Sequence to fold (591 residues):
Amino acid sequence: MTPHDSPVDRPITPVNDWRPVVPPTLGGWTPTRSLCVVMPAHNPKHLATVLASLAAQTYPTELTEVVVVDDGSEPAVVLPDVRPERTRVVRVTEGWGRANALATGAAASDSEILMWLDDDMLVFRDHLEAHARWHHVVDHFVVLGDKRFVEPSEVGIHPLGAAPDGSAALTPEQVRAAVANGAIADLWDWETSDPHTWVEEIWAQTDDLATAGTGAFVSLVGATVSMTRALHDAAGGPMRHLRLGEDTVFGHQVAEAGAVLLPDHAARSWHLGLSHAMRHADQVKAHNQPLFAHLVPSLRPRRVQHGRSWAVPFVEVVVPSDAPHLQVQACVDSLLDQDMDDHVVVLVGEWSLLDEGRVRPLADEHFDLRWLQRMYRDEARVELREPTDPVVTGFSRSPLRLRLTGTELAPARATLRLLVTDLDRTQQGLRVLTGDDGEVVARLERTAAFARTQWYDVPTGPEGAGQRDEMVAASHGSSTRPATDAGFVPAERRLRPRFGVWREAAMDPDASWRRLQRQMARNAPVLTPEPGAEPGAEPGAEPGAEPGADEVSTTPARPAARPEPASPTTPVARESRMGRRLGRVVRRLRD
Fold:
């Protein structure tokens, strides 16, 4: 493997297993790509020290630039004398916050590699080189640097460079020299200094993320992270409006753009003091809870509530509208009648053909299409999209996309949830469902897997569909199953629950309220146990609490197991049916 391999020569990385890619050896290769260090700064305390460490890097000076983004500092940031040659300050003029500063810095540069580095990171001399070597080989890798948290005053590094007691402080010139000759590694003891505990636990449990699968993105921490500009732009860049949690959200963004994440332990650094999240852990978690729930659908434990809709749905279902309107309605309504809420239906049709011009309603050549438009245009869970709309033709905004080839078959109520759970268990990239005739009924596609194909020489249009499927099968795996096994049935036979019609005669208010009370007794809410009660003492009590930020799981919440129904021919089943019938009769009489 050389830094000049073409995309077609690059090895396919299974899910997040980066190990098939071998980077150049530090000091034994010739860099060619420009690199920009984007450093957000708001009243920075250690800027002189950090820039001094960047002034002694092994990465070529002519290929390196540093953009310090002054995010409203008072007084304004002034560059110290000891710094990389191509260092400049860009002042934020609109918005505020770290995410906005990162986006501002990226926009101010045209370098091929972007690196985020916090203004309290004292980096070793080959830090930039360790990051950049991967980006000379593969365009879709995200590299995470290694760090230890230390107390800077222990070695004479003080905020703003001056010791409060007037004692000697480590000067920027001394920092630059210590980085250049490697003495920086001995300022503190790497083995006994404080690691980024929860991140390193993930690395240790997943062989440095190689076996982390689709959940690798949760370990993206922006203190020292790099990527190509192409990947940065494909992921959309940081969301400027975020104030905290932008690292995790961007981790999800790059994962959905097909990225592979890995830590490089050769990219070492000292983090000068504790991080903001360490100092205010509980407040940070509380702030990020709704943020992650809405913007990071892969963090399934954040979406345990039923009956909710979210900014980014977990599943996007694409349905064609080129069939009789009642058939399409049966299919769409079956999708809306799922026992999971976290999805949206994209109904594809030539909606632009419909205008407000005079037309005889019963002789309308677009009767079916117009009927569907009237039926669903005000349904928040259904989007009416043209066949050429980027939502239809591009990569999905959701982690999973279910594409139906027609509407002759409709899914059972549990189909979507069980299909998603099946794909999550296998972490495969594609599940193809076929009918009895072997024709494709539906495809459940993992967005990250299909987005991965854009980083190789695979045609992006319909002509590349077969190649994309082959690459997804190689990188993530795929399988073909019968649609009937997943609950697909003829649309006209799919029973959809309907509300009862209230056409009762006027009733005495007291008698009506007594009926409500009797009915409420059969539909009472399930309550959690009283404080101090034994767990599970209340029937139907929900066990356990939601996992914390450090206990992230990408596995969808699963309902409690139900006993298998008895055969309708057994005595138990006959007795059960009789009991239900008798109960209905008694309730009618009682009401």
About this structure: The chain has 17 helices and 19 strands. Residues 1-5, 537-576, 585-591 have pLDDT under 50 and may be disordered.
